[in-house]
Every structure is written in C-alpha cells, then in structure tokens.
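[recover] target loaded
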C-alpha cells in the first residue's frame, strides 16, 4: 500500500481518485513514516487522534505504538477504502467528519467513556494537513483549547517556517504569534515532495507543537491581543504608529502614541520586530488608555 502502484490499485478497486480540492497527497516513504511516529513518542497508554488518515499508511504504524487511534476522515470514499485496509489493528476507530467542525474533546470523551477528553486524560494529535486548510485547522485546535498534549503535523515547509519564526525574520507574522501563544513549535525535519503520490508542487516539513499548560504571555483580553497583532501586521511595511492608527482597533493617533509610550515601545518600530511579550504589553497598554 505504500507504493504508487498499490495506491492506484486501491483507488481503482474502490472507484475513487485523488481529490485536489481536498489536497490529497499520500505519503509513500516508510522511513519518513517511522520518523514521524518517533516524533510523537507514543506509548500504549496514549490515545491518538489522526486527522486525514487517507489510505492508512501512518494510521497503521500509530496503531502499533499507541493504545488507541481515532482517525477522522472527511472523504467518504477514502474512509470506505480505509475500512478494508485496516483489517489487522483492532484499536482503530474511524470517524467520518470535518476536522474544522469537530469538537475533539467531545469526540474522544465519547469514544473512551470520559477517560480522555476535557475532564479526562490528555491525548495526542497527528496529521498530514492539506496545504490549503493548514492555518484554519491549527487555529481550531489551539483556540478550541482541547485537552491535547502534543501535536505532530506535516505541512507545507514554508508554513512550518512561519510557525517557528522568531521576531525580525521574514517568516515571522501573525500566525507565528498565534501559534506560539498557545504552544511551543519545533521544526523536526523537512520532507521532499518526491515521497508523495501524487507529487505536490512544494516540499513539506514535520512540526511538533508542545501545547502550553498556560498561554505564552499574560494579557487582559486575549481577543484584543489577536486584534492588535492582526492590525499591526495588516500594514506590515508601516511603522506601528501608522499601522495601528485608523485600523480596525478604532484608536486615534494620539491614543496609539500614548499606548506605545506607556508600553515602552518605539512608535517607529515595525510589527515584525515585536516579541509576543511586547505585543501583550502593548495590548494591555491600549486597554488601559481606553478604559
């Protein structure tokens, strides 16, 4: 099943094809699969949710290492094929569903009788994310505050660089800050496009997110923090004073200048130079000026 020929044969037998609209590219390299599995540090006490199991190349290996796997697949045709493929492992539960609309705590809680989930043990999540939906799924996982301890995902290499980017780098932006507020991202290794079928147009990377028990910065209003970040990066080439003034925040130039001064931030700096802690300080300052 790990070869292109085997994938084509399975798809032919089930009358299905790779759907570009769902970003379906199947991993066909066992070495990469084993490296991904090792990255999650799985034990038999782990419950793993897998988003997008596809044809089960990763699912099978997760099942060998973990206590239970809940595989969430949005494509009904693939799920039918997967049901036929996964006849060996008895610890895999397959769910037809859209990850963007899934309450994962509720899903695992129902599946385990409450042993895992919001009021139970933490669980792990693994995925080979379609490129077009990476950011929405990441934010759904993090903003949902599901009881997840670790996320191991494969995604477009360029996006991976954004997740782990530091202030001052070209890749640093609103997504970097949002992810780093909730988790500690680490790029583990790159994955060439040649190990997928069909071959995508870009390379990938595997990222591990260690979910923080507490947010990475102290802020009075979390929604306001993200609004400030989005506004600051909305006009990335402008200074903070100019990008925040007249933005969706609804603050005038004088208020903005006063807030920046109170936060100890030079109005002439640009968004990509500020750390998460500085954005939190600025947010608290803005709220203090407006209160």
């Amino acid at each position: 099943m790990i070869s292109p020929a085997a994938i084509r044969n399975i798809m032919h037998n089930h009358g299905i094809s790779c759907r570009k609209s769902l970003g379906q590219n199947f991993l066909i390299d066992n070495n990469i699969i084993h490296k991904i599995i090792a990255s999650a540090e799985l034990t038999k006490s782990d419950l793993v949710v897998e988003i997008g199991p596809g044809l089960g190349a990763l699912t099978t290996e997760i099942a060998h290492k973990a206590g239970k796997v809940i595989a969430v697949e949005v494509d009904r045709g693939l799920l039918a094929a997967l049901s036929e493929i996964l006849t060996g492992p008895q610890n895999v539960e397959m769910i037809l569903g859209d990850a963007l609309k899934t309450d994962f705590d509720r899903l695992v809680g129902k599946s385990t009788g409450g042993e895992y989930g919001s009021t139970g043990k933490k669980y792990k999540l693994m995925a080979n994310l379609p490129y077009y939906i990476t950011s929405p799924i990441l934010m759904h996982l993090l903003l949902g505050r599901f009881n997840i301890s670790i996320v191991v995902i494969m995604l477009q290499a360029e996006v991976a660089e954004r997740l782990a980017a530091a202030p001052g780098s070209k890749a640093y932006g609103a997504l970097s800050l949002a992810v780093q507020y909730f988790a500690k991202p680490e790029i583990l290794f790159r994955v060439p496009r040649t190990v997928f079928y069909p071959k995508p147009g870009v390379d990938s990377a595997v990222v591990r997110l260690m979910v923080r028990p507490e947010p990475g910065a102290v802020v009075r209003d979390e929604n306001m923090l993200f609004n400030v970040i989005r506004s600051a990066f909305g006009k990335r080439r402008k200074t903070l004073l100019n990008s925040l003034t007249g933005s969706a925040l609804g603050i005038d130039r004088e208020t903005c200048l006063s807030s920046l001064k109170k936060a100890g931030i030079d109005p002439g700096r640009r968004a990509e130079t500020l750390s998460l802690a500085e954005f939190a300080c600025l947010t608290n300052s803005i709220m203090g000026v407006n209160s």
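[recover] notes: The radius of gyration is 21 Å.
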